[in-house]
């Protein structure tokens, strides 16, 4: 997550509200039953490697993030997810050193709906190595945002194997998020120039540990669209709730979803389980794999599968901006 300069002095004073959004009753559709099972071991192995010391904190423009890029390219290739551009690498136009988003595409199965795109994304960069001398100098970024990348990768594998998307799916791993949303700002301009037909974007941000609330996750910009209510309708569960701190700190504007919303003015939002009470190591060297709750990440991804499947298959665009 892009650095919250104004947030840190208040980080331990989060509100304990459990306000949530229940599934719609009138006119709601029956949740899709997904038999596919997200593999817990694969989640663990992927996250462990992406947040390992070998990646040296994945700072944009460094050798560490280059290793991460190769790892993500290999994952997409292994799972038969094709490059969206000529290669998986989308070069940032707004960063002085060579840096790349990693972008794959899963073509939709419907001849008309495949012209529309659902973007599933997370940022794979982090803040690198501490300059001051200390025992541990590597900011591994397990929660921020290797956890989100892991979940998006698993979603990509799901669609690649099941072919259950009538709309096309763009799988995006952003660089430069920690530098000011640079990767998403660069990519979105290229897509706009191509007349990219965006339906919606789900950006996954910091899902490494669960919340102690009566809903699984919260969404940024809760009142900007009906996405929260629709996801709950699609899962048949209390999956997405409203987190007052999200609104207070305007997190909608602080991750890669905002770059897409700013250009396309479509429902583009981030989903997170970092609630300012459940994780003390934001932008800290202790943000490491050993603190991640693999069962939670697996369950989070599994619970979202019916929702993203419905988003990718509904005959009309049901997720809309609120007026």
UniProtKB/TrEMBL annotation:
<feature type="domain" description="Peptidase M28">
    <location>
        <begin position="101"/>
        <end position="294"/>
    </location>
</feature>
<dbReference type="InterPro" id="IPR045175">
    <property type="entry name" value="M28_fam"/>
</dbReference>
<dbReference type="InterPro" id="IPR007484">
    <property type="entry name" value="Peptidase_M28"/>
</dbReference>
<protein>
    <submittedName>
        <fullName>Peptidase family M28</fullName>
    </submittedName>
</protein>
<dbReference type="GO" id="GO:0006508">
    <property type="term" value="P:proteolysis"/>
</dbReference>
<dbReference type="GO" id="GO:0008235">
    <property type="term" value="F:metalloexopeptidase activity"/>
</dbReference>
<dbReference type="Pfam" id="PF04389">
    <property type="entry name" value="Peptidase_M28"/>
</dbReference>
